[in-house]
Each structure stands twice: as structure tokens, then as C-alpha cells.
């Protein structure tokens, strides 16, 4: 999926979550590194040896990045921001903005890890053009990838400590918005470090969008399933099912009309999780909320 096509659903789905996350961190009086998610956990050798299980194939999905709320009784899989708790008794996936900063956390990155933020030739921070305040992490060298993985890895560990079963690493496609300063290979290498950290903590790992990855790259990272936004709209769903079979969480959005959702249900609804959501993924009870599955 190209960056501009992916930008609207991906950013729209996490805009509210970013604000809520910043408020939670502010209330706690701590920056990103001091949030509860920074608590490290150590996986046992037995846990590390077994590959964590992905979400149940074809399970009913609820995508709650705009704010957590009690899921319906038939929901099997919930995706929530890392600042929210998992749902007890439901397979919960932890959303982590892994390749860019959240707007409310950029100031912290500038103070604590200025060398890990991508800059242009004039020393200016490279922001996502569509979302001011979201600065790309600099994953251009092995040393910087390792250092950034230590920071983001603490959040991944925190997801496991909270009780999540899997992690969704967002902005894998940030390299497409770097003006040529980052490459796909560097993104894959960084994702591999985070996947290794997640697996060690007992978490399955989702590939988020970025359909241009090759099968070899997918295997090199160690992704276990996919979260694909609007793959019906952009005719990319076969890429994800080709890599992951039934282990795909597909999210279509209402502002492209209901036809893509109906087509997705007819094509794959009996095999993979297909969900229709409002673009801002607002909580149930909020005006504009839509959450329907096949």
C-alpha cells in the first residue's frame, strides 16, 4: 500500500489514541520512558522457544484505537492503544507507534533521544507531511536501530506485562515519507529487532499495512499475522492472505462507502476477520461510531 493511500486510514485510526496517550502520560507525570509500559519482562526459555499464537483466524474483530470501551459479547479480538488495558478473556492486540513519534511525545524524544529523530540536510526534523508533530525515527544505521529498539522495546515489554497477546507495530511504511533518507531494508531490519523483542516477551507480531514487502522480508522479520486497512479498496488483500493465510485482520472504513466492505465479506468474510469502522474509530456511544463485522 502506498504511503498516501495508507495515510488516511492509519492516521485517522490513531489520532484520538495519540491524544489520549499523551493525556495519560501527562497525568502520570512521566514521559514515554517512564510510562507503565516501560517495565521490562524476561521471557522464560520455554516461552521464547515456542512461537506466540496469532489471533484466532476469522475471529470477530473490534478496532478500538480511538478509545477503549467494553467490546460486544461476540468479539474475539480487540486492538487497543498501549496506554489502555487489554480486555480480560479476549485476545488483545497492543498498538504501538513504532516508527514515528506520537505528537504528544515528540518533545520527550527531542529531550531524551534527539539523535534518534530523523533530520534533513539542514538539521531539521523530518515530520510526516500529513500529520505535524509526528517525527520519523532515524533507523538509517545499525547503531541507531539498536538504540531505538531499546526505547520502543520497553513499550513492547509493557504490552506483555499488561496482559496483551500480540503487538501491532504501526508506521512500518514511514520510510516512504522520509524523502529518500530511509529505505525499506532499514525498516525491515528495525522491525526484525522489535519482533525479536516481542517474541521473547511472548507476543505475536502484526505486519501493519505495507503490502510491498516481499515474502522473504516478511519471513526475515518474523511477522505472525497482518493488520490490513482498506486492502479491498486498494486491491491488496491477496498479498496479505498469501503471506498469512487466514491470519489477517482487515479493517475497511465507512467514508469509502459500504461497497468495499460488502465485497470483502463476500470474498473473504468466511475465512478472515473483516471489520467496518468509522474513520476516527470513536468509542461506542460516541456520535459517528460504526463497528460491523461479516
UniProtKB/TrEMBL annotation:
<dbReference type="InterPro" id="IPR004352">
    <property type="entry name" value="GH114_TIM-barrel"/>
</dbReference>
<protein>
    <submittedName>
        <fullName>Endo alpha-1,4 polygalactosaminidase</fullName>
    </submittedName>
</protein>
<feature type="signal peptide">
    <location>
        <begin position="1"/>
        <end position="37"/>
    </location>
</feature>
<dbReference type="InterPro" id="IPR013785">
    <property type="entry name" value="Aldolase_TIM"/>
</dbReference>
<dbReference type="InterPro" id="IPR017853">
    <property type="entry name" value="GH"/>
</dbReference>
<keyword id="KW-0732">Signal</keyword>
<dbReference type="Pfam" id="PF03537">
    <property type="entry name" value="Glyco_hydro_114"/>
</dbReference>
<feature type="domain" description="Glycoside-hydrolase family GH114 TIM-barrel">
    <location>
        <begin position="62"/>
        <end position="282"/>
    </location>
</feature>
Amino acid at each position: 500500500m502506498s504511503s498516501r493511500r495508507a495515510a488516511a486510514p492509519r492516521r485517522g485510526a490513531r489520532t484520538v489514541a495519540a491524544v489520549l496517550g499523551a493525556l495519560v502520560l501527562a497525568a502520570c507525570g512521566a514521559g514515554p520512558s517512564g510510562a507503565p509500559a516501560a517495565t521490562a519482562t524476561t521471557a522464560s526459555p520455554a516461552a521464547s522457544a515456542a512461537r506466540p499464537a496469532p489471533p484466532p483466524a476469522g475471529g470477530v474483530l473490534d478496532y478500538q484505537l480511538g478509545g477503549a470501551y467494553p467490546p460486544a459479547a461476540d468479539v474475539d479480538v480487540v486492538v487497543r492503544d498501549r496506554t489502555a488495558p487489554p480486555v480480560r478473556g479476549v485476545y488483545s492486540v497492543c498498538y504501538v507507534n513504532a516508527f514515528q513519534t506520537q505528537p504528544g511525545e515528540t518533545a520527550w524524544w527531542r529531550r531524551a533521544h534527539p539523535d534518534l529523530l530523523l533530520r534533513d540536510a539542514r538539521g531539521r526534523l523530518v515530520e510526516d507531511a500529513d500529520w505535524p508533530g509526528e517525527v520519523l525515527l532515524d533507523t538509517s544505521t545499525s547503531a541507531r536501530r539498536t538504540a531505538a529498539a531499546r526505547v520502543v522495546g520497553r513499550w513492547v515489554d509493557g504490552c506483555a506485562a499488561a496482559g496483551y497477546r500480540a503487538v501491532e507495530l504501526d508506521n512500518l511504511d514511514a520510510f516512504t515519507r522520509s524523502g529518500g533518507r530511509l529505505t525499506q531494508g532499514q525498516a525491515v531490519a528495525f522491525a526484525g529487532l522489535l519482533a525479536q523483542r516481542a517474541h521473547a516477551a511472548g507476543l505475536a507480531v502484526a505486519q501493519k499495512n505495507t503490502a510491498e514487502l516481499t515474502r522473504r522480508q516478511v519471513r526475515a522479520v518474523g511477522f505472525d499475522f497482518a493488520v490490513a486497512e482498506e486492502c479491498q479498496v486498494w486491491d491488496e488483500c491477496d498479498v496479505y492472505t498469501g503471506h498469512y493465510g487466514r491470519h489477517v485482520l482487515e479493517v475497511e472504513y465507512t467514508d469509502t462507502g459500504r461497497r468495499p466492505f460488502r465485497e470483502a465479506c463476500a470474498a473473504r468474510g468466511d475465512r478472515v476477520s473483516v471489520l467496518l469502522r468509522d474513520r476516527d474509530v470513536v468509542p461506542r456511544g460516541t456520535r459517528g461510531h460504526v463497528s460491523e463485522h461479516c
